[in-house]
Amino acid sequence: MSFDEANTVRDGLRDHLTQNGWTYIPAATLPRTEGDVLVEPYLKTALIRLNPEIARQPDQADEVIYRLRAILLAVQGEGLVRANERFAEILCGGLSMPFGENYRYVPVKIIDFAHPASNHFVTTTEYSYTGAVTRRADNVLLVNGIPLVVGECKTPVRPAITWIDAAEQVHDDYETNIPALFVPGIFAFATEGKKFYYGAVRAPLDAWAPWKEDEDDEAASPIADVMDTAMNLLAPATVLDILKNYTLYATDAKNRKIKIVCRHQQYDAGNKIVDRVVDGRIKKGLIWHFQGSGKSFLMVFAAQKLRLHPALKNPTVIVVVDRTDLDTQINATFHTTDIPNTVNAGNREDLRRLLSQDTRKIIITTIHKFAEADGVLNDRANIILLCDEAHRTQEGDLGQKMREALPNAFLFGLTGTPINQVDRNTFRAFGATEDESGYLSIYSPEDAMRDGATLPLHFEPRLIEYHIDREGIDEAFSTLTDSLDEDETRDLIRRASRRSTFVHARERIERVAGDIVHHFKESVEPHGFKAMIVCYDRQSCVQYKEALDKLLPPEASEIVMTVGRSDPDEWKHRWDRSKEDEEKLLDRYRDPLDPLQFVIVTAKLLTGFDAPILQTMYLDKLMKNHTLLQAICRTNRPYSGKSFGLIVDYIGVFDEVARSLAFDEKRMREIVTNIDSLKDQFPEMLAACLAHFPGVDRGVNGWEGLIAAQQCIPTNEARDAFALDYINLAKLWEAMSPDPFLATYKEDYRWLTQVYESVRPVNCAGRLLWKKLGAKTLEIIHENVHVEGIKDDFDEIVIDEDTVRDLLENRDEHTIKKLEIQIITRLRKHANNPAFVRLGERLEQIKEQYEKGFIDSLEFLKSLIQLARDVVMAEKEVETVEEQQQAKAALTELFEEARTDTTPVIIERIVTDIDAVVRAVRFDGWQQSNPGERDVKKALRGALRKYQLQNDQDLFDRAYEYIRQYY
């Protein structure tokens, strides 16, 4: 018997759906003609069953059906999405008819969402419809005679056929030639028995998505996985829930109406939020969905369902952001989707008024508007806070103010970048201890890339090679500082050695700009993508703009930044834009036909900015943690022809990127748990601080109160003792804030903070000296720092602050300390063998090079793998076969001996993964087998892909040769 799409995929779906609440009825026996979209007898029966008024006069059902037919007929004139929106509005309860007593208008129920079992669920196959042409859909799901889901299947046994062929048939043929069939539809699906994708009406194919329920429950085969997916997505209750609560209609930048259907992670998180609020026992939850996976729409879906849920009795939903640009983005998302009863709290007074007046709407605000919310603003329990980017301000004192203002509210944090530092911990602030790993819902970077919601991120280091004219600096600097004393000279050196001094060097900016233009023209522009340059500061933005204008037409680049009050008037005139003008500029940037190819930024657009055409970020600014991760993820949005986002690194953030992408859940949980032990220490430490001020009345305000406090610590020794106690107390406060536990101590802590600030020393002299001589010092540095070239192989040292300070402060040459050879455990077994002694010496040299900064972590890894290969080769000459088989993987063991406290955790993970590949895929004689070599190479690529290193051919070759020789 042969396999084809009908007897495998189509009929398999049919049979599985009949186990899942659907009744199979052959299309030929349905009471309809091929010219009917609806199965009208089923629809009429449902209208009579669900509406008492129609039940009394069944002919009234015909009037409702006439209304629905009118929308089907209007599709040619008003477009499929608009007709689909009108039809969905009626299905969701938006139709009233004069069927009541004395012709009173009453709502007409077409589908019973509250009681799904009251509906009639039918699955059928080969559903033909004749419009301008005749087409036949493979699988159709009808609710009360209305086709809500259309599926197209392809054969699983032809390698050239994929789900995309089925999706194209739906999008390019069916929706174009028989649009009336799709007017009632929620979404369509496409499968070839290997992959299962679904998409909203008229959604382009790159917006279609997979539906993943449980990644841990792996199906036994691809077709079994497709069937499991269909059982989950196409369950009757899920289909109705998506129709009612997880479908949006929006207007895009070109004023076109588009339909948006939730992705699985949004559906999962939205329902978990709603279920937790309805249950009422647990008052918070943390949602970690990776950057670019649709958190804004998740908030819209969740807010929409919360507002409509009858058990919540007309709740208030507050969407809280911590930046003005995110406020603008969230407002735009809600308003373009026409979500009713949405208001923006324009200022602090608006927020206070809305909450004190018990407003029952969706309120969008920034957390800073809670700053003056002293005391309780509303103590209702059916207030739900959805906090976007749940860290930074929302974990500190503003977060505490918000909690105090709404003491009984539910609190949900949504973040793409959880933070696990002791003093800033997203898990402690928003995570519930009842949730495994601290999350209510998690959608990891791996999940997002697997589903195509985001793209992989690739990194290309292109570090700067410097030549510093030390003699020139010494001579000019001696002349400049001749009249200064030793302390003034040291202060000037400290300021001159800052990284910004070198970042702003004119020659450096010009060389980097030239390299950017060359790289862009070679690698980015030919593919139709655009780029962003992230600069050190506003001055760097202007310098890069000037440099680019010498190489490209001025219209090819624009600066987007916030201009400060003290900035030059020219900057204000050129780049101080209104929100409206800035948005117009960004719309131009998103337009592939517009000549604007670069946006130059330093802080703006690094969060919340969505431009899928942006593929490459040229990074010349040091960033860390969530700030770095949010920034680089501007490039990971899917776009036609785009397979990855590229970060070109000119300043050296490789290890920071690795740390930003590494989330150690176990450590996070330990930190959350350990916070409780700090509560026992806080009252004692607070008392120790207050003990410095015996008899002082802390209720006295103004200068009298401040003088009374300062008189208690009149000497440097007394102030130092107080400062030491206060700093320790402040660390505790930051570690626990915004825990409600601190509310009792807030006033005392605020008083101590003000006293501390009033006595903290300020080095005014140093600042005045820098203002006087700083510009000249910069000139000396810039004139004597020359850029030799831009290196993309990590071979040259990057001049950082410490290196520069050493050049300026120390006139004598440093002597090179003789290496002390330490033979590690593996080499010690052969201590008398000269070959192993030399290998030990090489290891120490590698370690010293890395510790001194002469090589970066990636080069360290490559050298370590090369050394591991050589150790294995040497061992094979002296060890028995049994010893080789029992030996621990050489690379892992060498790494354990070579690691230091500063070795990045990502290097350990790569090493572990490479050795895991060896153990997992090797078999005797694999080196002499083409399939064996292919499998090992594939597994190695997979191990490196986790760290975006699969394209580093040098690293791959060394690792592969190590694996070949070891086994």
How would you portray this structure in words?
This protein has 967 residues and is α/β, with parallel strands linked by helices. Helix content is 48%, strand content 14%. It has 39 helices and 28 strands. The strands form 7 sheets. The chain has a 7-stranded mixed β-sheet with strand order 1-4-5-6-7-8-9, sandwiched between helices. A hairpin with a 4-residue loop joins strand 7 (187-191) and strand 8. Helix 18 (486-496) crosses helix 30 (764-784). The two termini are 44 Å apart. The model is unreliable at 666-674, 762-772, 792-826 and 880-888 (pLDDT under 50).
Concise structural overview:
By secondary structure, the protein is an alpha/beta fold.
Query: Largest sheet, order of strands side by side?
Result: 1-4-5-6-7-8-9
Low-confidence stretches: 666-674, 762-772, 792-826, 880-888
Strand content: 5-15%
Total helices: the number is 39
Radius of gyration: 33 Å
Shape: globular
Q: Structural class of the secondary structure composition?
A: alpha/beta
Kindly list the characteristics that best describe this protein.
967 residues, alpha/beta, 7-stranded mixed beta sheet, 7-stranded parallel beta sheet, 39 helices
